[in-house]
Amino acid sequence: MGIRSMNPPLSQYQEERRQEGLDLRTRYDAGATIRELVEDTGLSHGTVVNRLRTAGTVMRTPQEARRHRGAAARRALLAAGLRTRYEQGATLTGLVTQCGRSARTVRRLLQEAGTTLRTPLQARHLRKVTATAARQQLIATLRSRYEAGQSVPALAADHGCSLTTIYRLLRTASTPMRPSQRPGPPGRRADRPP
Questions:
Q1: 82 phi-psi bin (left φ>0, alpha ψ -120 to 50, beta other)
Q2: Helices assigned H by DSSP within the chain
């Protein structure tokens, strides 16, 4: 004679309710509010609370719920701001640097805001375009400062580049170069470099 199980098997309906309660608990523990769960599932407030309790969820106190709602609002605001900057051309790496969060968190916030993330190919293309634009801006700045009278060594020091790089970028911009200054006769101070 076999040993009978003390717990009868759950019906399909009971199993579905149990699984739904566990899913709700997972989302609640991850930070979702009761209101968000109600809106997402279409269940009543009371049903969501009952399913959470049946799943053994430790419910937030009223004070914790108020704090959590404030944190959720701040998170939603941050996510919306990240989405705006991302859609205006900011890279994931740039957003990580700006907001001081991990790449994983930034990606999750973008997804929470409904952002369509770029494919790897799109991301590479954007990085290339951004780098090209930055280089063009640097070249224009160097030419403008050189034509205003600044020397190549000063430009190199300001931008952390070698003299050769500055000369190459100035030539790329078709900058009219000043003639080289040669040291004067003995006893006279040499002019500053071009």
A1: alpha
A2: 12-29, 34-41, 45-54, 62-87, 92-99, 103-112, 120-147, 152-159, 163-172
**Do 29 and 60 meet the contact criterion of CB atoms below 8 Å apart?**
no
For the whole prediction, is pTM greater than 0.85?
Answer: no
* Cα 110 to Cα 16: distance, rounded to the nearest angstrom: 31
| Environment class of 99 (CB within 10 Å of its CB; exposed 0-12, middle 13-18, buried 19+) | middle
- For 33, how many CA atoms within 13 A lie in the half-sphere containing its CB? 16
SS (H, E, C) 10-26: CCHHHHHHHHHHHHHHH
CB atoms within 10 A of CB 146: 22
pLDDT digits (tens, 9 = 90+) for 87-96: 888 888 888 8
C-alpha 144/C-alpha 166 separation (Å) is 13
Contact 34, 3 (CB under 8 A): no
Q: Are 150 and 123 in contact (CB under 8 A)?
A: no
> Is the CB of residue 92 less than 8 Å from the CB of residue 65?
no
- How distant is the alpha carbon of residue 165 from its chain centre? 32
- The C-alpha atoms of residue 191 and residue 38 are separated, in whole angstroms, by 78
